[in-house]
UniProtKB/TrEMBL annotation:
It comes from the Bacteria. Keywords: Cell inner membrane, Cell membrane, Membrane, Transmembrane, Transmembrane helix, Transport. Residues 350-439 form the AprE-like beta-barrel domain. The chain crosses the membrane at residues 40-62. It is found in: Cell inner membrane. The keyword Chaperone does not apply. GO terms for biological process: protein transport. It comes from Govanella unica. One of its GO terms (cellular component) is plasma membrane. It is a single-pass membrane protein. This is Membrane fusion protein (MFP) family protein. Signal peptide: none annotated. InterPro entries: Beta-barrel_AprE, HH_AprE-like, MFP, T1SS_HlyD. Pfam families: Beta-barrel_AprE, HH_AprE.
């Protein structure tokens, strides 16, 4: 007979252990088994070991662990230090801050002497006001208005500014004078038309009279010719009447010619009236076009001059702390583009800039969740901050000190997370540890990972 295998013997022995009476139970075997006193504790131990391994195995198979890239980093602000410069330069009139001062957006930092800038603005503004008044007058002339309508802001300014008031008054007077001049020219031409028409009417009356005379002469000549034919009238008398008829016809023709000439002059005069008006309108349109362009140019100059004046008061662009103040002397001259001071922004979005090892970059994605631990604080009392990856460098960078290549990832910490740090002061440059999550895996996968990787490499080899 074939001997039982080792596995069969172990199975039989294990079943015997399980079948053994419980500890303290009466012995029903007759007391011949030497292992009766040890089976129960061993069985209990095996059960405990089995339950422990099964429990740990189940936990390892299902308990999740975060997977991701671990990196070191530091706190940075959303924008770096703001370098405050002055475009034009100038003479320092007032220094309103010192190093360490906290400023808000719009606070005055430095004041420069504004005499020159203010004078330039006033010159350009005066020219602009004058041309705008000129433009309003030309617009009224173009549209044939009865009076000039100036912009409301000019009307308001004229109440307190004598120069503007004079400019508006001068344009009103010019409007009236030009309007009267054109009317005078057209009135003269209209009178000439009236005179020519009256002359034409007189000539027409003369033509009518001559026409009647010709009819009368024609009758007389006809009668005289009959008498002459019978010998009752002299030939000289007949010839005299015929000469009179010819003269009358000539006079009538001259009057008709004069009427035609007069009518032609009426047409020419009326055309001259139209030409006078048209020439005036063309001049107005041309002047208006030129003036409007000048107004645009002066408006740009005024805007630039106003900006120059406004820049004589250097203001803070962001909230922050003053550092690196370079000005200390009132009346000192600063050159264009000179750096005056710097502002370290405050209350900006805090970011953690993490250094990602090159072999971990595949685990870093935009929008990924990240855990941040700030190293200067006690870790047992400080909560883990949760952030989100908002930027990843497109290429590797090189550490100038060590020559090591790395990627950078910016992790933004929300306001809700920052509130967890009440009582703790956050300072740019503060070191931190960052875990950028890329997924989850179980404890069992973590424990078996090296083995499966080794087997995979072995099979590939």
């Amino acid at each position: 007979m074939k001997a039982p295998s080792l596995f069969a013997r172990m199975k039989t022995r294990f079943q015997d252990f399980l079948a053994a009476p419980a500890l303290g139970a009466p012995d029903v075997t007759g007391g011949d088994d030497p292992y009766a006193d040890t089976r129960s504790p061993i069985r209990i131990g095996l059960i405990i070991i089995l339950v422990t391994f099964v429990g740990l195995g189940g936990w390892a198979a299902f308990a999740p662990l975060s997977q991701g890239a671990v990196a070191s980093g530091k706190l940075i602000v959303e924008s770096q230090r703001k370098e405050i410069q002055h475009f034009e330069g100038g003479i320092v009139a007032k220094i309103a801050v010192k190093d360490g001062d906290r400023v808000r957006p719009g606070d005055v930092l430095v004041e420069l002497d504004d005499t020159r800038a203010r004078a330039q603005l006033q010159i350009v503004e005066g020219q602009l006001d004058a041309y705008r008044a000129f433009e309003a007058r030309l617009t009224a002339e173009r549209d044939g208005l009865e009076d000039v309508t100036f912009p409301a802001d000019l009307e308001a300014k004229a109440q307190n500014n004598e120069e503007v008031a004079k400019s508006l008054g001068g344009q009103r007077d010019m409007f009236t004078a030009r309007k009267m001049a054109i009317k005078s020219q057209t009135d003269i031409l209209d009178k000439r038309v009236t005179q020519l028409r009256e002359m034409s009417n007189g000539l027409r009356a003369q033509v009518q009279s001559k026409s009647e005379q010709l009819r009368t002469l024609a009758d007389e000549i006809k009668g005289l010719q009959e008498l002459y034919a019978k010998g009752y009238a002299s030939k000289s008398r007949l010839l005299a009447l015929q000469r009179s008829e010819a003269e009358t016809a000539g006079e009538r023709g001259k009057y008709l010619s004069d009427i035609a000439s007069s009518d032609m002059k009426v047409g020419e005069t009326r055309l001259e009236v139209i030409q006078v008006q048209k020439k005036f309108e063309e001049e107005v349109v041309s002047d208006l076009r030129t003036t409007q362009q000048k107004v645009l140019d002066l408006t740009e100059q005024w805007t630039a001059a106003r900006d120059v004046l406004n820049r004589t008061r250097v203001r803070a662009p962001v909230e922050g702390i003053i550092v690196g103040l370079k000005l200390h002397t009132l009346g000192g001259v600063i050159n264009p583009g000179t750096r005056l001071l710097e502002i370290v922004p405050q209350n900006r979005k805090l970011l953690v800039q993490a250094k990602i090892q090159t072999h971990d970059i595949d685990q870093v994605q935009m929008g990924a969740e990240a855990e941040v631990r700030l190293l200067p604080f006690k870790q047992r009392t400080l909560p883990i901050l949760v952030g989100q990856v908002t930027a990843v460098s497109a290429d590797t960078l090189e550490d100038e000190r060590t020559g090591e290549s790395y990627y950078t990832a910016n992790v933004e910490i929300s306001e809700d997370q920052i509130k967890k740090l009440e009582g703790h002061r956050l300072v740019p440059g503060m070191p931190a540890d960052v875990i950028i999550k890329s997924g989850e895996y179980t404890v069992l996968q973590y424990l078996l990972g090296p083995l499966t990787d080794s087997l995979a490499r072995a099979f590939r080899g």
